[in-house]
Amino acid sequence: MTPPPYAVCQGVLMAKKSGGKSKKAAKASDDQKAGDQKIKTGSTDKSTLTAEDLPYRPCVGIALFNDEGQVWIGNRIGFEGAWQLPQGGIDDGETAEQAALRELSEEIGTDKAEIVAETPDWLTYDLPDHLIGKAFGGKYRGQKQKWFAMHFTGKEKHIKIDVPHPEFDAWRWTDFGTLPDLIVPFKRPVYLQLVEIFRDVPQRIRNLGTA
Fold first, then answer.
1. What string of pLDDT tens digits covers the 211 residues of the chain?
2. Of 3, 73, 92, 205, which residue has the fewest beta carbons closer than 10 angstroms?
3. Which residues make beta-bridge pairs with 146?
4. Bridge partners of 76?
5. How far is 183 from 187, CA to CA, in rounded Å?
6. Helix %, strand %, coil % for the chain, to 5?
7. Which residues pair with 117 in a beta bridge?
8. Are strands 142-152 and 123-126 parallel, antiparallel or unpaired?
9. How far apart are CA 133 and CA 140, in angstroms?
10. Pick from 51, 23, 67: which is nearest to 143 by CA?
11. What are the boundaries of the region Disordered (predicted)?
């Protein structure tokens, strides 16, 4: 970026005072100052931002199953047909398990669940190009998620989406295998993996009811 006129003048004066510092040396000094300022302010030119410049946001996701082996799914507020499972970021000092139980309470108003399985690895997805530098405050390229399968141990009256900071405006139970067809395209690869990893969970939970 071309420095403003006063910066150029300042550079010339500095060169004279230093006994004729070369233009190359003066430019190097100015470049160093600009770099230091960028580090201090954390500024980034979002017009040239690419996914490779950004990290993944650590996150958890929850597949909550009822006694019939169906999974809970909610529609995001303001986006008709934008169905997804509960998910959210991991706070400082939290384990992934703690974050998953907290997010369940914050997003659908219940703590009546027990963890029955988790993904062995983190699953990642990238934001579409038009959302890079915009979604997640412009800080992340996408999310890396640790997913938990949970058995819902309460009754439907214990699920409340009218929480202080609501995420969903509707919800329902659905067949676990149909999830990838309901999700926005850029999240579909994660949900395909999730259905495969947790493929035996619905039957395991149904078996609990007949044991």
1. 444 433 333 333 333 333 444 444 444 445 444 444 433 334 445 556 677 789 889 999 999 999 999 999 999 998 888 899 999 999 999 999 999 999 999 999 999 999 999 999 999 999 888 888 888 888 888 899 999 999 999 999 999 999 999 999 999 999 999 999 999 898 999 999 999 999 999 999 999 876 6
2. 92
3. 60
4. 168
5. 6
6. 45, 25, 35
7. 149
8. antiparallel
9. 8
10. 51
11. 17-47
Residue type, 202: P
Do 169 and 161 meet the contact criterion of CB atoms below 8 Å apart?
A: yes
Q: What angle do CA 163, 98, 92 make, to 5 degrees?
A: 95
CB contact burial 22-31 (16+ within 10 A = b; e otherwise): eeeebeeebe
Question: What is the identity of the amino acid at 146?
Answer: K
Query: Alpha carbon 30 to chain centroid distance?
Result: 37
Place of tokens 């009822």: 66
Alpha-carbon span 81 to 170, nearest angstrom = 10
The residue length of the chain stands at: 211
Q: 153 near 116, Cβ under 8 Å?
A: no
145 beta partners:
59, 123
Phi, psi angles (nearest 5°) of residue 87: -160, 165
